[in-house]
Write the structure tokens for this entry.
Amino acid sequence: MATERTTPQTSEMTSAERRTGTIQLVIAMVLSGTIGLFVLKSGAAPVTAAWAPCVIGALAMGLVCALCGYFRTSGYTPRLAGIAVLGGLALVVNWALLFAAYSNTSIGIATVTYHLQPFMLILAAPLVLKESITRRQGAWVTLGFVGLVLIAQPWHSAPSSNYFLGLLQALAAAAFYAAATLIAKKLPGVRPHVTVFVQMIVGVVILAPLLEWSRLGDELTGGWSWLVGLGLIHTCVMYVLMYSAFPRLEAVTIAVLGFVYPVVALVVDVTVFGTRLGVAEIAGVAAILAAGVGNARRA
């Protein structure tokens, strides 16, 4: 995990710092792509699969922060702590809405709709972060989204009775994730480890009332090793990397690199679950990789 504090302003970043941020975010997105594998292998209900890692992540990150003295040197003020809590709320609402969308519509439709968030991020960046977006940057993001559509192929999914509700839930989840990303960029000069700790505490509190407590014991014992992995890898390591990277990168770069994780998820499908790729999926992967490389070379 990164041990440095995040640095202040994207406009002041050197190319070396931007490269560091890019590497950190790519690793985080690769880890994101394996979340589905861990959730499925755990056998836990969606809310449990979100809540248990928050508990594990809060305990582990709290221990790291205490042992390393990060609470004393966090860089947090009451105002920044409030921003971190707000970001945690946005993440939790994002999780709840996305899980609901998966049950109300197809995973393909929900995934494509959810990945409208890079566009939301780019549209909001000039207003919230005062970052200018060029046509070329917008084109790379659009190419990445086209690649995602080719991979998911939502037109192959039969709509359910709650189809449009699922669409709205996925769209709202995307908006909350974009908001969480923008909020994270408003936390310069603070320890990302403390940010993760604060937001995991928020997740524990907000998700607890939604748990099916009568089934919790069986769920936790049945897939405990996968839930621990979600808590340590996908909560502690992944979010520290993300929150270290966000202040170093422009919103458009964050948006484009966000398309890495569905590609990794597809690789997991192929290697672990035996899914066979067609021409459309291969073209989609190529489009996403081209978008990432094109954006990386723009400077």
